[in-house]
């Protein structure tokens, strides 16, 4: 009788192990919004393709991290299959990913695809929780292009930095004749500024006598309505100018307002990064844009304490943990050419 019970117990354990190690797979083929994509200057900033897939159900109730892998046919077979793939971390329990023309063109360039030639690439989804599960690859045609090299800059001298064009924030050329950048305007320093094509006062952009945006020697100052951080955009083709409220913030139990509201960071134009310096509590910390959850970043690595140049991932539900209350400097940078990840640091003062 005892032997039967022992054997029965062993059988149950084996069943549990077999359940945990049962084969897993994607329940359906991944879907794409386009199979032939021709990239150009015109669709650089537009969405050109989106991929979606059904969730992989693991035998443990925990977050599943999905990654897209994109590779050429020559690299998806053999012992080194997919080793040279371009991998884009999508995030935890995220079941779709959209690419702009710029993002896909960068991937194509990294894969060595020739410009202005249609090339076949293969896309698969990689799911991971306690082990990897791979979707079947799908093929799409991508025609990359060689983007125009843009090197132009405009300068933004103003009250925020002492009206010195040579040391002012810059607006970088993002497409021909269009310039964009970020400036934080503190209330105590004033909200007025001008824009100059060179790091001097020879001539400047401002408002003319009719209130139009103009380039002349006698333009009046520009200004923002309230203190804060802004994305400034100048289009010299249409002679238009906009200042749009734009700020990255930190949120979570570690921050002064917990999960209720962002604590805004300021843009450090000299180091081209967003910065917070002040007191933090022990607890979780995430990054989000413009006081909304539409665009947010979290860590999937369980990071905590002080850290330098660590990665956070777009739409990832994870958070950095501050272990000890104190005064910290937190920095944050998103690479516009690879926005699926961002780099951050947390340093105690």
From TrEMBL:
Signal peptide as annotated in the record: none
GO cellular component, one term: outer membrane
One Gene Ontology molecular-function label: starch binding
SusE outer membrane protein domain sequence ranges: 22-125
InterPro entries in the record: SusE (IPR025970)
Protein name per the record: SusE outer membrane protein domain-containing protein
